[in-house]
Amino acid sequence: MNRFKTMDSDAFRQHGYALIDWLADYYQRVESLPVLAQTEPGAIRAQLPPQPPLQGEAFEQIMADVERIILPGITHWQSPNFFAFFPANSSPPAVLGELLSAGLGVQGMLWATSPACTELETQVLDWVVELMGLPQRFRSDSDGGGVLQDSASSAVLCALLAARERATAGVMNRQGGRHGLIAYASDQAHSSIEKAVGIAGIGRDNVRLIASDTQQAMNPEALAQQIQADRAAGLQPFWVNATLGTTSSLAFDPLPAIARICQEHQLWLHVDAAMAGSAAVCPEFRHWQQGLEQADSYCFNPHKWLLTNFDCSCFYVADRQALINALSILPDYLRNRATESGEVIDYRDWQIPLGRRFRALKLWFVIRHYGISGLQQHIRRHVELAHQLARWIEADPDFELAAPVPLNLVCFRHRRGDVFNHTLLERVNASGALYLTHTRLNERYTLRLCIGQPHTTICHVEAAWHTLQATAEQLNDDR
Predict the structure, then answer these.
(1) Structural domains in the chain?
(2) Cα–Cα distance between 41 and 209 in angstroms, integer?
(3) Whether the Cβ atoms of residue 445 and residue 400 lie closer than 8 Å to each other
(4) pLDDT tens across 141-193, in order?
(5) For the chain, which has fewer Cβ within 10 Å, the N-terminal or C-terminal residue?
């Protein structure tokens, strides 16, 4: 009879060292790899055996297949030439924090199941309040507090549920039904909002997408008019999302005006700053947060632009009890003395799932390793690179900026029109030299170049710009 193939401490140490060496080498060579995976659909699966192995295999063989099969199918988000979508930062301190979390194998659903998991998270999230200049009402020593979610999508769902239960006095949780509830967001807001209202039972037809202005920001007058119209129709407005840094163009909704409207109508105000929120580590980028002191909830993702690998989303509420009331269920098997004392936080009541990982370790490692000054340098460098690229675009008669450049996202287009820009994007991405994505602004096809990877320098941005110019010239010649 075959024995169970275990990995003892000596083997774990040996293979762990080898894996860290592989990752260190990967970070050194990632710049030389095609940024966008150069594989066809199904190519990876075709190289994998149809059945799992009957007997355990050597770790060296597994890593050989990582190199041979997996790596060619990776789009390299950590490449300094990755300019698509949004940053997905990773860094050695974060990776080591993640490794420690995985090794400890903590299940942090209750304070009692690992007190350090809960208390470190509470403290780190209080640190982040100070680090980012957030309102004091989000600290744990107030009526509110913070929790680490997996993503801003989960944060927006939790905010919706808390607002739903507050608006219906808990009836929705007990009895179901929609109660004519209406939610509001900009037409530039993230798609996770429409997804969340569907999951929360509000109904996607009951989210109003408010028109944005010429700067792609929500029009507060249009918001106020729509709320009045819905009230007149016998509906119940209950929740508003304001975005600080939209996905398409990094537009900032006018938070003070939106907050005043929410206060007037007693609506829950959720503020989504998924990527741009990280910029608030620098005091000069905090002016967009004016009005945040009136928000009921707020989230941003350190796993986008703050050197912390996915998943790690900071979610804050001004009234923790509203969140707990919406999400808490306490079966007998979870009852314990600490919970019943009321002196501890049980983060299972602050999220959708019961179980939770020790996410705070990696954010703690990152903040302690880089410090405030290091994180500020990281952000400021990317903003300056984006501004330099914007200056080059403005100086080129063939290209034009499509939106303001407040931080690290540059939206631009070639003057030859939508078809030309679409072809330009496909040709550049197919080269493997860089990777960027697109959006539509004012009904026009627009290229997006987002700068945020830890190892991106002026040399990479300049090379990307030259590639875009040269490819555009080649397309002109082909025509």
Answers:
(1) 9-32+37-74 (1.20.1340.10), 97-365 (3.40.640.10), 372-478 (3.90.1150.10)
(2) 35
(3) no
(4) 999 999 999 999 999 999 999 999 999 998 888 888 777 999 999 999 998 99
(5) N
